[in-house]
Amino acid sequence: MTLAHLPALVVVVPLLAAPLVVLVRRAAAAWAIATAACAFSFAAAILLSAEVAAHGPMSYHLGNWPPPWGIEYRVDALSAFVLVLVSGIGTASALYAWRSAAAELSRDQLYLYYVMHCLCVAGLLGMTVTGDAFNLFVFMEIASLSSYVLIALGRDRRALLAAYQYLILGTIGATFYVIGVGLLYLATGTLNIADLAERLPQTASTRAVLAALAFITVGVSLKLALFPLHFWLPNAYAYAPSAVTALLAATATKVSVYVLLRFYFGVFGLRLVTETLPMAEILLVLSLIAIVTASLVALWQENLKRLFAYSSVAQIGYITLGVSMASPDGLTAAVVHLFNHGITKGALFLLLGGVALRAGGATMGSVQGLGRRMPLTSLAIVIAGLSLIGVPGTAGFVSKWYLVLGAIEAGRWWLAGFVVATSLIAVAYVWRFVEAAYLSEPGPATPGRGEAPAAMLAPALALAAACVFFGLQTSWTVGSARRAAELLLGGVP
Amino acid sequence: MSAFGHYSYWITVLLMVAGLYIVIARGNLIKKLVGLSIFQTSVYLLYIAPGKLIGGTAPIIADGFRLYTNPLPHVLILTAIVVGVATLALGLAIAVRIREAYGSIEEDEILAADRDSEGGA
């Protein structure tokens, strides 16, 4: 009985937690409510994931209005997988904020921080679960508006400018998306994603549909920071509070990738996307440029948060590279990397937040000799870094492995070589950290001996452990991604 | 159908391009937000104009009402207007905070101030 309502509850609980937090105002109570709401969503997402794996997709009709008219929430292999990632990272970030946000924000702002955290998580979960194209826009704006506020809460004044630039570009992206949806609505008369997919082949106005495809591609690409639309990302990640960087880096861009997958394969269909327009080729070229240039720029960064922000742009390139292959292995790689990169970057930014708290900033100077001063944190950063490179035994290896398989399957040996070769650039920027932390003497900026507070260290170490766990135990991640890829390509779910 | 038969589309396109141009070409943070608002407004028109049928009424099931206007686009745009207002309010609020922190709302001056403080640090 309750299980049938979970698709709605997973979104509604954090959404309702937000006004509740405004009412209670006290920081400790606000934190408890926000964390409990996120934890509830996490538990619900795991239950939904198990249910979908056992009994197939679930459909929830809001207000009991049947789908083409009412709004439908739909949980299938792909959305359940993304739900688990978003709610899991949301919970880890909320736990982490107990000490981290308290240290970085003023006391009277704290409860508002948790309001925005709840709204952001609710928006991202809503984008994932909804089966209605316009409802998706509303959730996208809920998530975006709250993330602009979260970024603007950063202590550095440059956080304000970063939030402003993200607001301008994010709004342009969302408006492009809604123009695309409007054109689809004009061509078909429906907003339900499944209904759209059925009616699109029958529509006569192909040009409107192609324009819709172009608008949605550009709009969503802005949101997911595909090269060359990534300029808002490095500053936004570098100057946001630590808990926010981890939340956004691990979830916001990933949910946008999910939206792209939904529209490419669930609405427009493989034929329209790859044959009528050269979308696969465009996506392939942009991904390759993103991987090379963003990795090279990352090499020269002194601020570690900026370094890993550029690395995010590169890693998103690997995800869209998998999408551009449009084959079972390519899509499996894209979906599994979406998850693996989410937990890897989540772990890295949470750990860097600990360094920043103790040293007053996470720069190359402040991590010199960190291996001796904060041994656990340094070790965990190295483990997450190995996962970023894709070393066997870590989560990152699994996704790179399927990416290489997909390239070989398509007969593109050069692409397989490219994936391996560009991983070497990741080796170089992770090595810079290793060199500073383990092979240098502690400098004046290095913090004294001692780890970050346990409330911050625990969620960070849990995510770093997850990088290793999902590198060795791949049946759930790869199985879910495989089912999602089959679903997207129109096979049996 | 002549090129000006659906003149509302021309207005939509004009507003869309003009708004986007202002966002890109202007360095003043407030003017950028004005451009963003114009850009969003064009989308309201894109949705609403095709929803109107000349001579159509509200969808009432009764004798004498034959031609209906689809009410859904209006409802959708009511939501989009709320989103647009929230975005503009937040954008202006951030612009106020930027003015407090930098003493300017001109993008080039703000970027120059950041470069100076980085060079000094």
Can you walk through the features of this model?
- The model of chain A has no long low-confidence stretch (mean pLDDT 89).
- Chain A has helices at residues 2-24, 27-55, 77-104, 110-129, 133-152, 158-188, 193-199, 206-224, 233-239, 242-276, 279-299, 304-325, 328-359, 370-373, 375-389, 395-409, 413-438, 454-472, 475-488; strands spanning 58-61, 72-75.
- Chain A has 19 helices and 2 strands.
- In chain A, 78% of the residues lie in helices and 2% in strands.
- Chain A is globular and about 70 Å long.
- Chain A is an all-alpha fold.
- Chain A folds into 2 domains: 1-277, no CATH class; 282-488, no CATH class.
- Chain B has one domain: Helix Hairpins (Orthogonal Bundle).
- Chain B has 4 helices and no strands.
- In chain B, helix 1 (7-25) packs antiparallel against helix 2 and helix 2 (29-51) runs antiparallel to helix 3.
- With 121 residues, chain B is mostly helical.
- The interface between A and B is medium-sized, with 24 and 30 residues.
Query: What's the quaternary structure here?
Result: heterodimer
SSE string of chain A, helices as H and strands as E: HHEEHHHHHHHHHHHHHHHHH
* Total number of distinct structural domains of chain A: 2
- The general outline of chain A is globular
Largest sheet of chain B: none
The biggest beta sheet of chain A is recorded as: 2 strands, antiparallel
Q: Using the alpha-carbon principal axes, give the shape of chain B.
A: elongated
Unreliable spans of chain B: none
In total, the number of domains of chain B comes to: 1
The main sheet of chain A orders its strands as 1-2
- As for the CATH topology of chain B, it is Helix Hairpins
The overall strand count of chain A is: 2
Helix content of chain A: over 70%
Which chains share the greatest interface?
A: A-B, 24 and 30 residues
**Derived structural class of chain A:** mainly alpha
Report strand % of chain B. under 5%
Q: Secondary structure elements and their pairing?
A:
The complex is a heterodimer of chains A (493) and B (121).
Chain A: H1 2-24, H2 27-55, E1 58-61, E2 72-75, H3 77-104, H4 110-129, H5 133-152, H6 158-188, H7 193-199, H8 206-224, H9 233-239, H10 242-276, H11 279-299, H12 304-325, H13 328-359, H14 370-373, H15 375-389, H16 395-409, H17 413-438, H18 454-472, H19 475-488
Helix pairs in contact in A: 1-2, 1-4, 2-3, 2-4, 3-4, 3-10, 3-13, 3-18, 3-19, 4-5, 4-10, 5-6, 5-10, 6-8, 6-9, 7-10, 8-10, 9-10, 9-12, 10-12, 10-13, 11-12, 11-17, 12-13, 12-16, 13-15, 13-16, 13-18, 13-19, 15-17, 15-18, 16-17, 16-18
Chain B: H1 7-25, H2 29-51, H3 72-102, H4 107-120
